[in-house]
Amino acid sequence: MSKKKHVKEKKLLFPRVSMLDRLMFTKHLSIMVKAGVPLLESLETLATDSDSDYLKQILTHVANDVNNGKTLSEGFSRYPKVFDTFYISLIKVSEESGTLDENLIFLSKQLAKDYELRQKIKGAMFYPGIVFTAGGGIGGLIAFFILPQMVDFFDSFDVELPLPTKILLFFANIMKGYGVFIVIGAVLLLILLKMAIQRPAIKPYWHKLLLKLPVLGKLTVFGQTARFCRNFATLIASGVPIPESLETASNTLTNVIYQKHLLSAKGALIKGQNISEYLDRKKYKEIPALLVKMLRVGEKTGNLEDVLTYLSEFYEEEIDNITKDLTTILEPIMLIGIGLAVGFVALAIIGPIYKLTGSVY
């Protein structure tokens, strides 16, 4: 008992549970429940074995709740930042229907697909991120340590400097006099920008802008559509009523604009309208036309779950194709950009030296 108290009172600097930790916990819990291990014993065992200190605390608290007569979904609902509405809804339905072991396996599979989808998107951004970070680091070193030295060096030349050299010296003078302030200002600006886009008043505008960006916008739309369709299909298959499934699946989305459009369809659904009819009438630019058409097919045939599953797989494949093409497209563009930058610096440095040696002879 003292061990539980110690875990409960432990203070954490950054309390968070990663998506992989949540996935592995769900997978292990499903295996233990399927094997017939009592739920309380399963939670206590997983709490002891967890590598995440925060997840260890959560599972200890949930085990205490279950031991005091509360349901598993009630225990999880105390931690909405770790277990979202989709997760809790599936657990609640499975408790009511007596299919907790089956739904935990199903839930772990859905979390695995969601994790794989995020990894694909992150993978697409990894190579460009490495190149831009390396380029920015090298550019910073040049700006701080090389350009300021060049100011005095070229000032000693008694020749008319070429235009590229004048441009380079202009930036060199700025970095020599205000470089530290520029870097500090840029860092502060990024921090303020990150804080600003999280505010409820600004977040919708930022998310709308993300949806309109050339490549990132398409990745966002496909990612949100795949996640919505997969979660919507999962909830319907678990026996959750369609209006509630629509609301829960929409609330699992991260883009507030996309989320708002789909949530607005719930009111029409309650009034007896079809989701596809409502979305077709509204003609939201952010909602893919294919989604609306396929929803109409699913509603007419009564196979909405199968259609949504097909759509989630289709959009996941589309994301896979985009991520593969993205590296192929960006690689030559980045190489050209780096080549132009290197060529400009070389021309700016070599130009006046060549001109000076020519004047000597």
Task: Note down, in words, how this protein is organized.
With about 350 residues, this protein is mainly α. It has two domains: about 1-85, Type II secretion system (T2SS), domain F (Receptor-associated Protein, Up-down Bundle), CATH 1.20.81.30; about 115-360, Up-down Bundle (Receptor-associated Protein). The protein has helices at about 1-10, 20-35, 40-50, 55-65, 70-75, 85-95, 100-155, 165-195, 205-210, 215-235, 240-250, 255-270, 275-280, 290-300, 305-360. The model is unreliable at about 1-10 (pLDDT under 50).
How many strands, what sense, and barrel or not for the largest sheet? none
CATH level 1 name of the largest domain: Mainly Alpha
CATH homology superfamily name of the largest domain: Type II secretion system (T2SS), domain F
Would you list the SSEs in sequence order as H and E? Answer: HHHHHHHHHHHHHHH
The whole-number mean of residue pLDDT values reads 82
Choose one word for the global shape: elongated
CATH architecture of the largest domain: Up-down Bundle
Classification by helices and strands? mainly alpha
Compute the CA-based radius of gyration.
28 Å
CATH topology description of the largest domain: Receptor-associated Protein
Number of strands: 0
Number of separate domains:
2
Give a quick rundown of the structure.
By secondary structure, the protein is mostly helical. It is 81% helix and 0% strand.
Features:
361 residues, mainly alpha, Receptor-associated Protein, 0% strand
Detail the topology: elements first, then pairings:
Layout: H1 2-9, H2 19-34, H3 39-49, H4 53-67, H5 72-76, H6 85-97, H7 100-155, H8 163-196, H9 203-212, H10 216-237, H11 242-251, H12 256-270, H13 275-282, H14 289-301, H15 304-360
